[in-house]
Design brief:
Layout lengths: L2 H13 L9 H12 L2 E6 L9 E5 L3 E6 L5 H16 L4 H8 L10 E3 L6 H18 L8 H12 L6
Parallel strand pairs: 1-3
Antiparallel strand pairs: 2-3, 2-4
Helix pairs in contact: 1-5, 2-3, 3-5
Protein name: ImmA/IrrE family metallo-endopeptidase
InterPro entries: IrrE_HExxH
Pfam family, one: Peptidase_M78
Length: 163
């Protein structure tokens, strides 16, 4: 598949997504999980600097997206969406494992590690993640920082007027 065809396929996928308003990657993962009939858990896990930023683990009845929490909120959101894109695109981690480690039993590994954009699968996931963010924030102000959302929620809970 040429680059132009791949982008068309990915753009169709993104156009078909109903994004939550206001946009939130966690909520989108919940929606996609419900639509697929497979729960998607999103879990922050600190990772060593210079290694992974995210990984998708596929279990029998649910998928788990693990992401690096020690980065900016915008980067965290992009990592989550990149991993979600692998699920939306139907990328099978076992295919990559068979290619990288032909002698390794697939049962030994629940997920796979992706660290570069060298192959088509990574490019597709990166492209879809970027297009989701573009669609989500088209014509909108950037989302408030997490600290502001927490403060607003606390003020509402305590009966104070939000700022």
């Amino acid at each position: 598949m040429c680059l132009k065809e791949m982008r068309r396929k990915c753009d169709r996928l993104v156009r078909g997504l109903e994004l939550p308003v206001p946009f939130d990657a966690y909520t989108l993962c919940e929606q996609v999980g419900a639509a697929r009939g497979r729960e998607i858990l999103v879990i922050p896990v600190p990772m060593a600097a210079g290694t992974l930023h995210g990984v998708t683990l596929m279990h029998e009845n649910r998928d788990v997206i693990v992401y690096q929490p020690h980065t900016t909120p915008v980067h965290q959101q992009h990592i989550i969406l990149h991993e979600l894109a692998h699920l939306l695109l139907g990328h099978d981690p076992k295919d990559l494992l068979r290619t990288l480690f032909p002698d390794l039993s697939p049962e030994l590994v629940a997920g796979h590690l992706r660290t570069t954009f060298k192959d088509r699968v990574e490019y597709e996931a990166e492209y879809v993640a970027t297009r989701i963010l573009e669609k989500a924030h088209r014509g909108q102000d950037p989302p408030p920082p997490p600290e502001h959302r927490l403060l607003s929620r606390l003020e509402r809970t305590l009966g104070r007027r939000p700022r």
